[in-house]
Amino acid sequence: MATEALFCCDEAQARPWLDRLDARARIVAALAIVLCAVAIRSPWVLLAGAPLLLGFALACGLRGGEILARLAHAEGFLLVLLLMLPLTVPGPAWATLGPLEFSRPGVERAVMILLRVNLSALAVLTLLAGLEPSRFGHALARLGVPEKLAHLLLFAARWTELVRQEARRLHDAMRARAFRASTSAHSWRTLGHFTGQLLLRALERAERVDEAMRCRGFSGRFALVSDERFRARDLVFLAGLGCVLLGGLLADRAA
Description:
Elements: H1 16-19, H2 23-39, H3 43-59, H4 64-88, E1 93-97, E2 100-103, H5 104-127, H6 133-142, H7 147-176, H8 185-215, H9 232-254
Antiparallel strand pairs: 1-2
Helix pairs in contact: 2-5, 2-9, 3-5, 4-5, 6-7, 7-8
């Protein structure tokens, strides 16, 4: 089974420089950037951090077109915020367009949300999107996340692909019978049968997996085994990132 990226459903890409880092260091770094982006109140500091984070993403092997394509998924929601917040947040008018009045606090709040979301998404995309789900789950467990949550993530990462394979087989069978989706009653009935069959096959597969795990002595806990070690390069990476984030926080206080 092809391993998949965390951030989206594309295959994980090899990023030699980042892949040498411990997964825990990458998770901590992403979390630190997100928290720092939320804590900073100056839009100019956030705007200055955007090219730095973008340059870091490009240095890690991401392509500009790929970054824009991934961020485009969040821009639709942010566009709605940019239009609605200036109209709904009370305050002095920033601009008027006929009967519409855009408030200055609403514009400022929308811009801050836009910058914070994009910086956070870019940090997660750069640091976590290339992590295999199994590696990500093991790293979370070693960071102290409850084992049940880590196990749930590991199961979901594997089970999503199995359900997708079942859905693909059912879809191929429907296409072999010349099925074409439409708004007719027959089409809706067929799609209902498709959904029911998919759920039944997933349930049957889950029962077989449960029996196989019990035969192998599964007692409710996985042995989370990982050969990753926290090395000097991880410490240097986190220390450098900490200095940059501290500089951003100090600049924000001075602004």
